[in-house]
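ARCHIVE CARD
Drawer: 12
Card no.: 0347
Subject: one protein chain, sequence and derived structure
Cross-reference: see card 0346
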Amino acid sequence: MAFESLSEKLGSIFKKLKSHGKLTESDIKAVMREIRLALLSADVNYTVVKDFVASVSERATGADVLESLTPAQQVIKIVNEELTSFMGGENDRIKISAHPPTVVMLCGLQGAGKTTHCAKLALFFKNMGKRPLLVACDIYRPAAILQLQVLGEKIGVPVFSMPEGTPPVEIAKQAVAFAKDHGNDMVFLDTAGRLHIDEALMQELSDIKTAVAPNEIILTVDAMTGQDAVNVAKSFNDLLDITGVLLTKTDGDTRGGAALSVKHTTGKPIKFIGTGEKMGDLEQFHPDRMASRILGMGDVLTLIEKAEQTFDEKKAAELEKKIMKNRFDFNDFLDNMRQLKTMGPLDNLLKMIPGASKLAQKDLSVDERQLSRTEAMILSMTKKERERPDIITPSRKRRIAAGSGTRVEDVNRLLKSFDQMKSMMKQMNTPAFRRRFK
């Protein structure tokens, strides 16, 4: 997960800071030295580190902090605010054109995940009620068009392509005209990538920009390349004047240097981050929320948004009725567990809960395999057993264990946990409890 190592280092720095009580200027200088080293080891651009430390130091050595009753908390607050500022301050969204279609051109080096994230963006906006069109402008990479067509079919978004040999500029122009004729209000151009920045690539992108005047030019950057990502962003921005960055593969980058450096060095915001391999693993980038995650303060808003996107409202209403009537069964348990799994790796969800990141550091992480074993046990039950767990006798337990490749003790543990959950739900359904938390 992005920033994992940086988050741990800053956490230990602030833990020592809190134990000081009152702070002196020399204490602040020592902390700044440690923060500088933590940022550099996270592969943050040197100039960014220098500016960040200078900015925090200036604010942290003021009288308001040194004379405060809780100086350590004040320093953490300043670091949080400066992290947010350096990553862009506020969430910068894709600008939707008043005259459809909104044209979004994706560019970047080969291997950054451009084609996949082009489709992820299309799905993101499709889920918001838009009618996107994917456009195959990469005519050079073998199977690039086929890859986009497969992804388009997977997410239910049409893909525009033209016969072999058609120049990318012509493809882009024809695609925009097609979108206008067929009611597609967003067009995503998947342009060709290269293994390195070259004049032919940049000229082609420049020609496409001139021909279709895209509303947004989004650069896809591999987060795992660290400071190289910043150099790529600067080169593309100098020649194309990009409008934003989509940072890919953040789930595999524990350092986070690229995310902390891109905005400050290019002046262009990170608009989205790719957080996994699934088509739904794409998040809008919120600098304030990311700063909170880095400092172990959680990210409840993103967690809520993920839940809203994942959970079926109709099913949620039905579940509420069942809980009210004390009719929650293993079918409901299995359904909710599956929906929870679609929200992404559970360890990552845990880190979005304030304070929970400390639990994760103590190895109290979620075992994904245990969820699979639980699912296997429930599926080994008969329809009647899932609806009425109270009928599960010792012989039935042995059959369920044998059918799921688990032990009878595992089945007993599942049944006990389920009974405890039902008991808690029953307690939550009392008038006294509802009045208390209304």
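Annotation on reverse: The mean pLDDT is 80. The first helix runs from residue 4 to 18.
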